[in-house]
UniProtKB/TrEMBL annotation:
One of its GO terms (molecular function) is kinase activity. InterPro entries: P-loop_NTPase. The keyword Kinase applies. It holds the Pfam family AAA_17. The keyword Protease does not apply. Keywords: Kinase, Transferase. This is Adenylate kinase. It comes from Methanothermobacter thermautotrophicus.
Length: 189
């Protein structure tokens, strides 16, 4: 990595506040903000496969995978990207790593975390269809996300940071500091 990190992946379990934090951060960094799920929905729409998230989730896993790959290919063409995605998804079949490591190598992976009870309460009022989790299973999901992202980091050579989201503006500023420090570190002798 030289200079400003090109690809910053902000990952977290659903309901941790990734999108809010990334939207705040996108106003103060040069990176193009991409919500991976929204990009997948856009691709599915262009391919006349889905008009909304419900349609997307009802597609076969093979179709979803093709859409996921196309979204990664589109992101790969960009120079500076702030990528908002779960990193690991819980499906009825089990957990799936959703960071497309075979197509995209993030310079930085930021794991955004919140208290499991707060995430649980946010999900209760969320209109998105999700696999229902308890605060205990959310904690397990968070632990698996951490482990998965550290493994991805070891394979890819990405930096990993964990940021607690108690306040979205503060979390965005903490991620900005990480991006700046990573850029500064690459210019040291």
């Amino acid at each position: 990595m030289t200079g400003v990190p090109g690809i910053v992946a902000v990952v977290g379990v659903p309901g941790t506040g990734k999108t809010t934090v990334c939207q705040i951060l996108s106003r103060i960094v040069r990176h193009t903000y991409i919500n991976y799920g929204e990009l997948m929905l856009q691709v599915a729409g262009e391919w006349n496969l889905a008009e909304n998230l419900e349609d997307l989730f009802n597609l076969s896993l093979d179709q979803q995978h093709l859409i996921w790959v196309e979204a990664a290919r589109r992101i790969r063409r960009l120079d500076y990207v702030l990528m908002d995605l779960h990193g690991i998804d819980l499906s009825p079949l089990g957990y799936l790593i959703s960071l497309p490591v075979d197509l995209i190598t993030p310079d930085i992976i930021v794991i955004l975390e919140s208290e499991p009870q707060s995430i649980f309460e946010r999900r209760l009022v969320d209109s998105k269809r999700r696999v229902m989790e308890s605060p205990g299973s959310i904690r397990e999901h968070m632990e698996l996300l951490r482990t998965s992202m550290f493994v991805c980091s070891a394979i890819l050579g990405s930096l990993v940071s964990i940021v607690e989201n108690n306040d979205p503006h503060e979390a965005a500023l903490e991620i900005l500091r990480i991006i700046e420090a990573a850029g500064d570190a690459t210019t040291l002798p």
